[in-house]
Structures are given as C-alpha cells and as structure tokens.
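Assess this one:
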Amino acid sequence: GTATPTGSPEFSSPQEGCPEEFDSGTTYEPYDKVTVTRADDSKVVYACKAFPESQWCNVATYSPLNTDKQCNGDVCWPKAWNRVGGCDGSYSPTGTPTFDPAN
C-alpha cells in the first residue's frame, strides 16, 4: 500500500502563565482573556463571553475590576466575563517547532 499525506498537525497545550492585565482602555472581543490582580496579589483570569454578552466587556460597570453591586444587588462582571481560574507568572514565548524528517 501507499501512504498519503495527512493535514497539517494542530497543537494545543494547557495555558501556562497569565494573560495581560485587564485595562479599561483596551477594547475586548469575545473570548479575550485578561488577568486581574487581587489585593492579596493573587491573579485571576477572566474570559470575555461570546456575543451578545461580549458587548458588555468594554463597559466599566461590567469590568472584572468592579466589585460594586450595581446589578440588582450583585456584581455585574459575570454578565460579560467568565472566571477561568487562577494563574501565575506570564505567558512565555513559544519556541519554533522542529520536525523530525524521519517521521
């Protein structure tokens, strides 16, 4: 038999490090991730939700930094952002892929 080429490989890896800090001057789009550093120096990652909720990711009231209970007695950020979890450090640059010509 003969072997036929396959498609280009796709690589995925777990998130390491923290994305950029949330910045109220940045325009965020669906699925953008940000870091918020808490008062105790712990870092939490948030991801902007999909449309239509993503329209609120750039409104100060819905900022993950806003802890005021302005949405019917609750914080507003969960309407625009998903809490992804904690992180440590920063994203490190990715290396150039290497290929083994024998494979």
Observations:
- Strands lie at 33-37, 43-48, 81-87.
- The CA atoms of residues 5 and 102 lie 14 Å apart.
- Confidence is low (pLDDT under 50) at residues 9-15.
